[in-house]
Amino acid sequence: xxxxxxxxxxxxxxxxxxxxxxxxxxxxxxxxxxxxxxxxxxxxxxxxxxxxxxxxxxxxxxxxxxxxxxxxxxxxxxxxxxxxxxxxxxxxxxxxxxxxxxxxxxxxxxxxxxxxxxxxxxxxxxxxxxxxxxxxxxxxxxxxxxxxxxxxxxxxxxxxxxxxxxxxxxxxxxxxxxxxxxxxxxxxxxxxxxxxxxxxxxxxxxxxxxxxxxxxxxxxx
Length: 221
Prior knowledge:
Order of helices and strands: HEHEHEHEHEHHEHEHEH
Mean pLDDT: 95
Number of helices: 10
Strand order of the largest sheet: 1-2-3-4-5-6-7-8
């Protein structure tokens, strides 16, 4: 497995070189992460809190750690001291817990709101009604220790590229609509995290600013 060569091959195919590559290192050994780091990667994505906690002290301090999996409220406190961005904020309850834990250590936590765009019930995320209801509450307006940086979505797991494109396009449309709204200062729609190893080129065509790539870099799990 030549991680550096894989990385170079992936980057060569990028349609937008400004799009940020998050190397999804879940289940991979530290030696693989260090090899990717030596090849220039600074953004790593993990989907389990315990694994993130274990790896973080073993890697250089300039690594940006991305929590990309489903995050349980009772695990938030373990990652808020160092996490760079939490991609999968899928409920107001979770957002309030992140804010609470950020307040305890006086740190503003960067997050993305996860929107349910797939045609699968197993995926998590807000729908537009839930977003509107949240934005209207006084609890939301009083959040002081989160920075909402944008949206994240996961497309349906399907070979149908047209469906994947449609779902990404719907998310980008929502992203642009939300950008035009008058929302609190801590809400700034700058990033849209869509696209993984199988569909990152479609995601880039549809406006992704971050792609989460694992197997194309590190090989199959």
